[in-house]
Every structure is written in structure tokens, then in C-alpha cells.
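tool=predict chain=A
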Amino acid sequence: MPRDVPPNFPPSASDKRARLTLFWLQSGGCGGCSMSLLNADSPDLFAALDVGRIDVLAHPSLGEASGEDYHALVGRILSGQQPLDILCVEGAILRGPSGTGSFHLQPGTGKPVMHLAAELASLARHVVAIGSCSAYGGISAAGDNVTEACGLAFDGAEPGGVLGTAFRSRSGLPPINIAGCPTHPGWIVETLVQLGHGTLGASDLDAYGRPRFYADHLVHHGCTRNEFYEYKASAKEPGQLGCLMEHLGCIGTQVHGDCNMRAWNGEGSCIRGGYPCIGCTEPTFGERDAPYLETPKRGGIPVGLPTDMPKAWFVALASLAKAATPERLRKNALAERIAVPPGKASGKPK
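tool=predict ok
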């Protein structure tokens, strides 16, 4: 067992439950969530699958079955010969044109992937949407949406999708929406391990089907620019160190995710890399009214304010904070590297 697996992960010797099977279906998307998943490191993907007692039947990058063997595997699942415990769907469901699903056909069969996804979902113990495209339509459904892309159980923020509002898997759960673009590898492996041990229930999902262990947080939590945010010391150009909310379109105070608490590979996040949060875990991702690097304002006040904060309070606090901004933060906010380091503490703390 790799050293990075937490000590409470291995099952007890008395736990003899059968291993679960996982089938990963690639639908209308870029494959970026699979690429993200392959970078899982705490634990890594293979350790997580072992801990969760999960066997992969098929995956575009990891599965051994291809061609006739792949189609035979699908046939065994649909006929009931091969049990299916976890169906993971990556990418949006393409319903076009005119609801036929003909824009996306399964290679070798000519069958719409839309129909295959629905058939497999009806047989699976758990259904998991991997990424915002599979959850809500995501970028694939943005703009005019000529492909009629949608998610498994949502069409944007509206319940429905290709499976409908009443769908429940054999476990009694709705589709589990691990939203993100790409979704964090830690969110996937933690969800799979919980499913493997039977510890994920309906109360562990939020109103949009996202696992609450990450969706009960905001991207703002743990942001490395929070000191600049508190004093409203804002960057004006990409690459500067200040808060990205006031001028550069960051909506991390409104977006659900623990991205800055659970950094990619222990180091990265969009904001840590100098790019504003653009809300990739939200059902409305891809439908923003303003350019991603601009903050819409009315009367000089950002339209999108922090979650649960009345506008009057924000205006009052922002005015006070800007008046009290230390010169160090005022200068560093507009610099690309720390221009003024923190000074020494004077005297003993009182």
C-alpha cells in the first residue's frame, strides 16, 4: 500500500464484502476529467480503487477491453450477465439533432450514446456524473447549444437532463454530480471510496447532487489572496498579487468547492495560478454574461457579491476596509512579486 494512503482507509480484516464493478462511459466532452483523475495523488487512483474494493470494467484510458471485446462487455451488462455497481459518465449527453441523439453514436454499433447511457444507468447500483458537462451540460451546452447537450439529471440549473427528475439508481440515490471543469481528482477518488464502503447517502449530496464534502465549502475558503480581499486591495491586471474579485472577474466568494483548501497535487488552483475563479462547479457554468476577466458592476459596485452578504453591508465594509488598507498591501496588490514584505512585530503582544 502506498505511503500516502491515510491510515484509516484500509478495510478491517472482518469486512468481506464483495468488490464493486465500475464502467466508465465517455460521452460528449474533452476527456479532461479523466486526465485530471490520472493525477490523483492522495491517495493515487489505483490505491483508491483498491481501498474502495472497486474493479474497473472499462475506461477510455485504463480499460483493457476494446473493439469486439468492449461491445461484448456492454452486451453482458445490458443482458444482466455482468453486474454493474458504479456507472461513471464523463462528458455531456448530446441529444441532437431534434432529440434523436444522432450527433453522438457509439462506434461500431450506430447506437446513440444517449440511449446507452440511460440503459446502463437503469442497471447500475450508483450513477456518477464526472465533471460539470455530465452533471449539468457545462461548456458543451454553452451558447446556442446546437448539439442539445445536457447533463444526466440536470439541464443547466433545471432538474431533468436525459434521465429525468424521478430517476434513482438501484441504491435509491439520484446521480451523484462531481461537478468541476475539470473536476478535482480528490473529489472523484473520495466519492468512489465512499461508495465502495457504503457511506455516501442522500443527505451527503447538496441540492444540485454534488457531494457535500467539497460543495459545502466556497472557493474563497483558503484562498491565498484573502488578506488582499479583506482590505479590498485589488489587482488591476493579470499577474498582479491583489484580490481578483473587484476588477478581474473572480467569483470565488460565490462558487462551491474546496479548491483552495485541497490544492491540485498539493500546490495548484486557478487562483493560486493567478487566474480568477470562473465558477466551473456551478450549474450555470458557461452561461456568464460578461467576459471571464471582467467584473460586471453597477454604480461601481460588483454585481456578484459574496454569498449571503447584503449589498449595503458589502459597500459599508468595503469602504472601511479600503480606508484601513496597510500600505504594504496597497503596493503589493499591484505588483507581480512581493514589493513590501511584512515588517517586524514591535514589542510584545498585548
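The radius of gyration is 23 Å. The domain at 217-338 is CATH 4.10.480.10 (Cytochrome-c3 Hydrogenase; Chain A, domain 2).
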